[in-house]
Amino acid sequence: MSTSEKIVVKPEFIKQAEFIARGTEVLPDGIIGLATKLQESKENNKPLRIKLGMDPTRPDLHLGHTVVMRKLKEFQKLGHKIILIVGGATAMIGDPSGKSETRPSLTKEQVDFNAKTYFDQMSKVLDIQSAEIVNNADWLHKMQLNDLLKLASKVTVAQMMTREDFKKRYDEAKPISIHEFFYPLMQAYDSVVVDADIELGGTDQRFNILLGRDIQAAYGKESCQFAMLLPLLEGTDGVVKMSKSYPEHCISITEDPINMYGKLMSIPDNLISRYFMLLTDISTEELNNIEARLKTENPRDIKMKLAFEITKEYHNEQAAIMAQNEFVNVVQHKGVPSDVPEYKLDTPKNIVELLVELKFATSKGEAKRLIQQSAIKFENEKITDINTIISTQGVLQAGKRKFVKII
Amino acid sequence: MSTSEKIVVKPEFIKQAEFIARGTEVLPDGIIGLATKLQESKENNKPLRIKLGMDPTRPDLHLGHTVVMRKLKEFQKLGHKIILIVGGATAMIGDPSGKSETRPSLTKEQVDFNAKTYFDQMSKVLDIQSAEIVNNADWLHKMQLNDLLKLASKVTVAQMMTREDFKKRYDEAKPISIHEFFYPLMQAYDSVVVDADIELGGTDQRFNILLGRDIQAAYGKESCQFAMLLPLLEGTDGVVKMSKSYPEHCISITEDPINMYGKLMSIPDNLISRYFMLLTDISTEELNNIEARLKTENPRDIKMKLAFEITKEYHNEQAAIMAQNEFVNVVQHKGVPSDVPEYKLDTPKNIVELLVELKFATSKGEAKRLIQQSAIKFENEKITDINTIISTQGVLQAGKRKFVKII
């Protein structure tokens, strides 16, 4: 490695590395290692090859996914090459054990369709045209028995068992099928084929990406890939990771401006700085400035800047201004939005049933909870009785941002 | 299984099973299970498919190899089908870890040549013409990634770790490469492809053959294969297993009649009955009779019958008679063989160097040991001094059966 060769790393590359790696963990050699790779690349006029593997099974991207894409964009800005690997081999295999219903096998057409949807959405963040897009089915499906055994011979059982989930299951006497060893092996082999210098992934990819280093070395690469491990972005509740499974705390990148802005305004104050760091291009100096301001100013004002910036990025400035005005009007001035849908009430109806019918709640149970939590208002009066009957015209409101005009 | 179906097993099939399984272990259901399979086969007029996998890397067969071949021959006599699987896939892969020099990768031509040599030798014991001979390269090399992962998904890591050598190495923190898991998997998959009813192998094949049962079940076979585990035949010293690595205790099936007979006469008495059981067609009654005689008669006479029978089988009756006469003359009557090679001594020579030159010893060290063990005679006088110089004509003898006439 670079350090043993006594390369003097120039401050500009340290700065580049610090910016691009913020919020992440770089292995094995941290910021200095990354800075050295960046410097060597520049000096040799040889762009780094930045790998991201994608499982083309979930075509709806949310802000959580954009964390890694912003990193890719930063690498692109510095002139490096992005390699997007569609996991066609993995996706087409599905879960061969047949034990799980959650990962059905996909056809090539489905994989292609999902991948295209993925790239369309990614193009909102990075320059997808200049990325190298490959499908690992193109090489993995061509591997013969000998190739696979050669690959498998490079890793020991003990090494595999250092992967935390394997170790845990083995220790708990839960079954691990042999084929599961092949997922990390195939991902690692992808790094050989695309000749990756850096692989990005979530913290749960630590083992797989470091295995990629070992496998590259076993196949003769001299300077093997680094891992850049990205944190999971918390959802707007600030507790669990952002995920489609919790739609109310998840912000899709195709979310309309008003909802995007409003959801961003709902994050807890302690997430403001983190969202700025992981979801905007704000400089290190600005970020430090924001952190200082958060200690003295009203966090709401800084959060509005965050919501404005992100909404502007995924829509445009006008949409962001509109969303901000709407937010100020509805939430801060307790007003009713300018554009409230109407609902024709043919016959008097119990509030619980009505909430479900309006899809303000997904079940009667949830509707009752919302009422108990004082989240439901009719004509600006809280409804506290689940037996309330709605029979007149007026504005019904659930939470801060859901409105309907009963007519 | 049969027992749960309350099949009444007829005595004739019990007798067949007892004869064919003698000296072996049959899993999972022992003699009764085997008898049931034999009976069902007969009643359904559906010959059993008896599998033997062969690693075509050692073309010189010795009596140790014939133990399993005799079992195959017995199955053939009962009308069952022998399936010989040449391990072409395994052999061509060699040891992909590159850690061992002992199993070099073989080309297809080498595999074919070795296999042919194998079959030529096997035809001395069984009817090779009516056996089904296949090469697992024909299906294993055609497997695609998906097929291999499907196969691998049928077995868990914990299951693999019950194989003793894996468990031992894992516990001792010695490396097990992932590809090693594929050898038992491929062998097991062979059983699916050839639809085996019984697989024969050494006791070290217990795990692999039983895995074949599991894999057959996983691929939908109803009545899965039995394992018939054969003992390792001891070499003529009665201690370590017969192996080419100890040529002095190993009897090749192409060994000349005099050496074959002589080596058989050198086995310890406690092996006589075992050699009869594993290396001849002697009936159960005769075997019992021999065991009784061994307690009262001179074992040498019974051993001579053994040596005669085996020499006759691999050569012919005349050769066996000749070998027996030679043995009686040389060993019992301390005579010199009828046909001793001559060696022209140009100049007086030290006994140690001479023994090496004559190939009576493979090294000076061995030559010295032979002298110290009183195994060397010149003109019927023991040589005890390693500095002895041979300068006259006479018969030089090493051990019981090596002679040269110095002229």
C-alpha-based Rg of chain A, rounded: 25 Å
Total of DSSP H or I helical runs spanning 4+ residues of chain A: 18
Largest sheet of chain A: 6 strands, mixed
Share of helix of chain A, binned: 40-55%
Report the sheet-strand fraction of chain A: 5-15%
What is the residue-averaged pLDDT of chain A?
89
**Which segments of chain A are poorly predicted (pLDDT under 50) over 5 or more consecutive residues?**
95-102
**Structural class by helix and strand composition of chain A:** alpha/beta
Oligomer: homodimer
- As laid out across the biggest beta sheet of chain A, the strand order is 1-6-5-2-3-4
Question: Ends of chain A: how far apart?
Answer: 72 Å
Largest interface: A-B, 35 and 35 residues
Q: What form of chain A results from the Cα inertia axes? A: globular
Say how many strands of chain A there are. 13
Give a description of the structure.
Two copies of one chain form a homodimer. Chain A is an alpha/beta fold and 407 residues long. In chain A, 46% of the residues lie in helices and 12% in strands. Chain A is built from 18 helices and 13 strands. In chain A, the strands form three sheets. The first copy, chain A, has a six-stranded mixed beta sheet, sandwiched between helices. In chain A, strands 7-13-12-9-10 form a five-stranded mixed beta sheet, with no helix packed on it. In chain A, helix 11 (206-218) links the parallel strand 5 (198-202) and strand 6 (226-230). In chain A, helix 12 packs across helix 16. Residues 95-102 of chain A have low confidence and may be disordered. The A-B interface holds A 89, 92-93, 96-98, 140-141, 143-146, 148-158, 160, 166, 170, 173, 175-179, 181-182, 185 and B 89, 92-93, 96-98, 140-141, 143-146, 148-158, 160, 166, 170, 173, 175-179, 181-182, 185.
